[in-house]
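Readers of this paper often ask what the protein records in our data store actually look like. This encoding replaces a full spatial description with a residue-level series of whole-number codes. For reference, a complete record is included directly beneath this paragraph.
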Amino acid sequence: MKLSRNQIKMLLKEWNMAWEKHDLEKIMELFHDDVFFENWSGAYIKGKNNLRKAWVPWFENHGNFRFLEAETFVDEQVQKVLYRWVLEWPSMEPGFEDKPEIRKGVDVIHFKDGKIITKLTFTKTTIEIDNKRYALQI
């Protein structure tokens, strides 16, 4: 099942609303059972159930976060999206704990059978705190 451009855009709208509400179950509904997720550090997870297990602690411990859509490119033909985002949340970086932090990144999202089958996350190696840039502690 291929999604139309409009269907992809509607799915991404659902995606954004689910993240805004911190609704992990709604987010998980949008993933294919065989999803492959790779985060910014290169760590990866295969399978929707494994991804849910990995994300539960993040949602429970970091409830005060917000993703903002900066820019989105949709390729209907190949069922892929380039999604540029901004994350606002309380920092966990040493020396900046709980200060407002901004991270910027990109997700490369692939669809299969109307669901997200691959989500590759890339992030800048700098963060912004108090309008200053700092190297991300890797």
User: Anything to note?
Assistant: The longest strand covers residues 100-112.
